[in-house]
Amino acid sequence: MSMKPVVELITAWADYESKNPAASVADFCSHYLLNSKGLPIGETPVEATISDADAQLSGLINQLNAIHVIYAKAVLKEMPGIELEWFYFMKEIDRQKEARKSDVVSAVFFEQSTGIDILNRIKKAGLIQERNDPMDKRARLVKLSPQGEKILISLHQLLSKADHMLYQDLAGPNKKMLINLLSDTEKKHNALISENRHKQLEELIAGYQQEKK
Question: In a 10 Å sphere around its CB, with 0-12 CB exposed, 13-18 middle and 19+ buried, how is residue 116 labelled?
Fold first, then answer.
């Protein structure tokens, strides 16, 4: 028996473990099997089938997100005056502790004008504080106010109900597997968009393909 498959498996495990130190062998096996580029003997990739799968996956994720928004807005009725979008902005501000308004808007992938308007409404509600950036007088820095910190904790607790409502029927190992599968895609494209936000899609595709070579 050739040692090459064994070496490939050990190499794959080492790479996976370095990125997911807390993962189990079962997690790795699921990840490896679902990400394997090999096809059963006799099968050949069909471009139309791949495109159909991409479209189906995209549609499924979009549909699930739309359903999650409905659940999230339903649970937010317990906090009148708070908009769902505020949560994304406040969570990002909390992650950065203090950040330029423009950087916060970019991080949550909103248009600048729309994002600045949302931040102004959050500020008006007393949930964030704002000051001049000492490094750039034209920029403004924002951070959560003490009230904002309390509200964000409440939002996390409330919106976790929407998360659970949507994904409660998925078994734990399947959730972990989906997280492992989608995390790499999210990280790659998050970085791609952050660095090339104003480029045309064809330029993004060309750059992405070049990086993969």
Answer: middle
d(CA 42, CA 40): 6
Nearest CA-CA partner of 121 in 149, 87, 155, 162: 87
Measured at the CA of 95, the angle between CA 76 and CA 116, to 5 degrees, comes to 65
Helix (H) or strand (E) holding 99: strand 99-100
Q: Is the pTM of this model over 0.85?
A: no
Q: Residue 72: pLDDT above 60?
A: yes
Domain locations along the chain = 53-167
Q: Would you state the torsion angle of the CA atoms of residues 29, 32, 33, 35, taken in this order, to the nearest 10 degrees? A: 150
Q: What is the pLDDT of residue 115?
A: 95
User: Domain 53-167 carries which CATH code?
Assistant: 1.10.10.10
| DSSP class per residue in 127-181 | SEEEEEETTEEEEEEEEE-HHHHHHHHHHHHHHHHHHHHHHTTS-HHHHHHHHHH
pLDDT in tens, 51-68: 788 888 899 999 999 999
Residues in a beta bridge with 83: none
DSSP designation for 78: G
CA distance to 4, 7, 9, 210, 212, per residue, from 14 (Å): 15, 11, 9, 26, 21
1 — pLDDT class (breaks 50, 70, 90): very low
8 A C-beta contact, residue 171 and residue 179: no
Gap between the Cα atoms of 205 and 208, Å rounded: 5
